């Protein structure tokens, strides 16, 4: 593997961030896995799985505009510290709720919604701050790809640990370990040495700044296109993950460990995809790679959907994870490397809206659809939609290339 794979680690602040966030994210994925398992075990309802995803992500959609403006208006570092303490508080509340056994599914859903509100402010601040953590800005795409590898390595490890913890110790241990994991990321943030924050003069109110961000996206077609594609994938395809407990419990007749393993191999595929992206040499055509990997994602889902032989299903789940990775990482990289720094927080809030906002709506849609036509047919339909989006991406790229060549010939 080329040395360029880890170039971003030359920056001390980024190394600190990466190590702290790595530990915290394992806890986050443990909590996500445990929440899904508890809700499905209590209700045996696919719709409730979709509703839980909706509750955890829709508040991010509603409040991400404010999160983006806050990230551009105020000290991103302090904002990120506040959101990490708030997330730790949410995890402690969830742990206490499960520990004392007097809970209803609606209380778990309410706490998931609280985390969604926190994330609306956390994501724009965190993603924008990565830019400031990297000393050499040429290493930014590498840092973003390494971020994705970290997210997906934790997705690989977290659900697997959660599956074992759920069987051996109980749900409250999963939630408690997540609460403890925030100490690592808060500690790493406190050890950073960032440039002194300079307060920027503000000439517009919050709504004026929101409008300015929206106008900027409208006038930048390359960014607008990426956001539309991500929104479609997030609405119609990414909620396939809400149906994994159904495969684990009903199709493969498994336990919490089966659920953890399927989730982990999706994470393994996504981790491999992130390392592949981190290893790319600067200057590669990311849009073409995005289109190719969208086709891989779609093919993986179609093959996984009706496979009843568990080991083969795990292979197809891994392929799906590899293709899925590009949707999130390349979209983020294309935005971060082309956006005006003064607009970074607001544009990332639109990215968060497309990613977090469409998924919960899709979760309700996919949960309802799977009740009607069955889970395997629903996942197959999602795979076919992904293939169509991948071919549409290639068509757009060919047209864009033709336009560019025509413009060059005219010059």
Automatic annotation (TrEMBL):
Example of a GO MF term: transmembrane transporter activity
SUPFAM superfamilies registered for this protein in UniProt: MFS general substrate transporter
Keywords assigned: Cell membrane, Membrane, Transmembrane, Transmembrane helix, Transport
Membrane topology: Multi-pass membrane protein
Transmembrane segments: 47-67, 79-99, 105-123, 175-194, 223-244, 256-277, 289-306, 312-335, 347-373, 379-397
Annotated InterPro entries: MFS_dom, MFS_trans_sf, TM_effector
Gene Ontology CC: plasma membrane
Domain Major facilitator superfamily (MFS) profile as annotated: residue spans: 220-411
Subcellular location, record wording: Cell membrane
Name this protein carries in UniProt: Putative MFS family arabinose efflux permease
Species in which this protein is naturally found: Pedobacter cryoconitis
């Amino acid at each position: 593997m080329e040395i360029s794979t880890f170039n971003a680690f030359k920056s001390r602040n980024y190394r600190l961030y990466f190590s702290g966030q790595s530990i915290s994210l394992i806890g986050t994925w443990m909590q996500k896995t445990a929440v899904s398992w508890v809700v499905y075990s209590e209700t045996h309802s696919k719709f409730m799985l979709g509703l839980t995803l909706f509750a955890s992500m829709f508040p991010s959609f509603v409040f991400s505009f404010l999160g983006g403006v806050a990230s551009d208006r105020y000290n991103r570092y302090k904002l990120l510290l506040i959101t990490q303490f708030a997330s730790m508080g949410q995890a402690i509340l969830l742990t206490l709720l499960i520990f004392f056994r007097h809970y209803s599914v609606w209380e778990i859903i309410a706490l998931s919604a609280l985390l969604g509100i926190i994330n609306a402010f956390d994501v724009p601040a965190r993603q924008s701050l990565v830019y400031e953590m990297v000393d050499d800005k040429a290493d930014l795409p590498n840092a973003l790809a390494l971020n994705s590898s970290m997210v997906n390595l934790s997705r690989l490890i977290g659900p697997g640990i959660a599956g074992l913890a759920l069987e051996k110790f109980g749900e409250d241990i999963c939630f408690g370990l997540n609460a403890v994991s925030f100490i690592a990321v808060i500690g790493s943030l406190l050890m950073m040495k960032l440039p002194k924050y300079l307060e920027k003069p503000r000439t517009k109110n919050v709504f004026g700044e929101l409008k300015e961000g929206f106008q900027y996206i409208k006038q930048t077609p390359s960014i607008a296109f990426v956001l539309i594609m991500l929104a479609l994938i997030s609405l119609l395809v990414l909620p396939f993950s809400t149906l994994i407990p159904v495969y684990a419990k009903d199709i493969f007749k498994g336990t919490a460990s089966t659920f953890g393993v399927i989730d982990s191999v999706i994470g393994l595929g996504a981790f491999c995809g992130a390392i592949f992206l981190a290893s790319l040499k600067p200057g590669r055509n990311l849009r073409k790679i995005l289109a190719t990997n969208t086709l891989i994602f779609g093919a993986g889902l179609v093959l996984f959907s009706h496979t009843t032989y568990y080991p083969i299903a795990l292979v197809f789940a891994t392929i799906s994870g590899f293709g899925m990775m590009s949707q999130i990482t390349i979209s983020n990289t294309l935005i971060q490397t082309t956006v005006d720094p003064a607009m970074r927080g607001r544009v990332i809030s639109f990215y968060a809206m497309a990613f977090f906002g469409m998924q919960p709506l899709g979760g309700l849609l996919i949960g309802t659809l799977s009740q009607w036509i069955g889970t395997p047919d629903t996942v197959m339909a999602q795979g076919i939609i992904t293939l169509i989006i991948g071919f549409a991406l290639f068509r757009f790229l060919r047209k864009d290339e033709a336009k560019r060549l025509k413009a060059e010939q005219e010059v």
